[in-house]
Amino acid sequence: MDKEVASLRKENAKLKDEDKSKMSLQAQIDLLQTKLATSYGRNEVIEDDYRRHREQQVQELLVPENPVFTRRLNIHYIAPTDDLQMPQDVLDYVSSHSNFTQKKFSTLAGGISHVDFVYVTRIQKEQFPSAEG
């Protein structure tokens, strides 16, 4: 795993600035797939801003050809508000194509207990309208 991360970092350093965001997205997907592919019967947490651009990332990860689908995983989705939670159509898709148990949580404390792996990204506050308006 460490060699893969080092390789991705080298490749990312070679890219032009405009291409780095693409590599970053793909690197995150690849690393998450690698982690999930090696975990059988583990409890996984994905904490994210699901309603924004990361929903596509999750859908790319959860394709039927991905060997992760043969695993028995417990996935905890954590988002502070209903607006940021994983969309129901994605939950339904995952349920119909995997052996995953999925739970949604609104607090980190509630969703992180008894987990083996955590994937976290920040909530993109700049995507929300200013409260001062």
TrEMBL record:
Keywords: Transferase. It comes from the Eukaryota. The keyword Transferase applies. The lineage of its organism: Eukaryota, Metazoa, Ecdysozoa, Nematoda, Chromadorea. This is Uncharacterized protein. Residues 1-20 are annotated as: Disordered. InterPro entries: Asp/Orn_carbamoylTrfase_sf (IPR036901). GO terms for molecular function: amino acid binding; carboxyl- or carbamoyltransferase activity. One of its GO terms (biological process) is amino acid metabolic process.
